[in-house]
Amino acid sequence: MPIHSEEQLTAFIQETVRRTPVTDIHTHLFAESFGDLLLWGIDELLTYHYLIAEMFRFKPDLAYDTFWSMSKREQADLIWQTLFIDNSPYSEACRGVVTVLGRLGLDLSTRDLDGYRKQLEQIPASEYIDRIFALSGVRTVVMTNDPFDDYERAHWINGTAGGDPRFLTALRIDPLLNGWDQAYLALEQQGYRVAQDFSGDTVHEIRRFLKDWIGRINPLYMAVSLPDDFAYPEASVRGRVIEECILPVAREAGIPFALMIGVKRQVNPSLKVAGDSLGRSDIGAVERIVSRNQDVKFLVTMLSRENQHELAVTARKNRNLLVFGCWWFLNNPSLIEEMTRMRLELLGGSVIPQHSDCRILDQLIYKWDHSRTIIAKVLCDKYGDLFRAGWRLEEEEIRRDIANLLGGAFWSFLGKPDPAA
Ligand code: HDL
Ligand code: ZN
After folding, report:
1. Can you give the pTM of this predicted structure?
2. What number does the ligand 1 atom closest to the CA of 331 have?
3. Which ligand has an atom closest to residue 273 CA?
């Protein structure tokens, strides 16, 4: 049906973005079958590492170890009091908790954390999962599956993993690239004939390890996070593993290699999982790896705001590069809007505007509510420009475009049908 007015256009875009199911291409969520790896509920929400970092800023006299020795409930109580009661929760991570509690139907005027806990902890996990997927409008999430994690590996080896079609897999291999001195020992223990100095069958055995896990978990892509000083090509262990193991296996398996670049791990170790930071990276490394391996597909996201424009331009030059998400410290309304505008202006629909990076299931609600609102706002401007220029706009085409941005571009890039469509 044609669009006849800007009012009709705005209403249609907002409703369509709100209703279109999402494929969330990078999360740290797990299906219920993975046991303790699935995190959900208000105490997990409140002890999200983003909030831990923010809480410490208001507690200059609180010893780190004092906090870490508290129970999760005690940690949540302190974070609630500090960030939600003693201060107003307008930071994005705090606001996210408010959004989730409101959308779960809790009375936010009481601010009664124990009352909220009582209401939520009665809900069985499987019902909670269904409710979060329904409220968030997310249809499929891609997990971060780590073969170096003993607990998760055991689930795969003894067959208790998987089984929920809403949770798809990605093979995460950071230790291979960022921690070889430990990783080679883990590979040895798993039966692979590798040597720290890369002698003997090491290259072949690393490839066998990757192929074994691709066969075991059927990942949509292989993924790694890389430091801000990532270089390519590089005469290093990382450079050899990429060149001689990952790229050949990606080619053979026909799955993308996802690069998440710009992390400075543990700049404040006392913050533990909250202790990572970022650095501006060399876009030349991205340009070289994608242009020199045009028969491999690359999903790339970068952590520094300063890398975003050059990453989008690099994608214009390399069709085997698909840019995704407003990652981590970029997942804030002001930066999501800036990045989405710039990406749609440079790449049109050949981009994945957002992923959630959720660690706690409930976060799907706020990370997607907040991003959908911004994506819709930007799209209203972009289609509005076309409308005012006299371009004929059809509802069906706009619906098509929005489905593409919220998952279709990912499945097209993979060359696979969306299994949930
Ligand atoms: O390496 C990653 O996948 C990052 O997303 C880290 O998990 C980070 O701690 C995070 O949760 N960011 O949102
Ligand atoms: Zn992540």
Report:
1. 0.98
2. 13
3. 1
CA-CA-CA-CA torsion sign (235, 241, 242, 244): positive
Low-confidence ranges of the chain (pLDDT < 70): none
Among the listed residues 378, 310, 306, 312, the one whose alpha carbon sits nearest the alpha carbon of residue 346: 312
Interatomic CA distance for residues 39 and 360, integer angstroms? 5
* pLDDT at site 162: 86
Task: Kindly state the DSSP code that residue 406 receives in the 8-state scheme.
Answer: I
Q: What is the pLDDT of residues 257-266, one digit of tens each?
A: 999 999 999 9
Please tell me what DSSP assigns to residue 80: I
* CATH architecture of the region 6-414: Alpha-Beta Barrel (3.20)
| Atom 13 in ligand 1: residue holding the nearest Cα | 328
Q: Kind and range of the H or E element at 253?
A: helix 247-253
Which distant-in-sequence residues (6+ apart) come within 8 Å of 67 by Cβ? 52, 55, 56, 75, 78
Ligand 1 pocket at CB < 6 A: 28, 225, 260, 276, 328, 357, 359
DSSP 154-198: HHHHTT-S---TTEE--EE-HHHHH-HHHHHHHHHHTT----TT-
145: DSSP letter: B
Q: Where are the beta strands (DSSP E) in 196-293?
A: 222-227, 257-264, 277-278
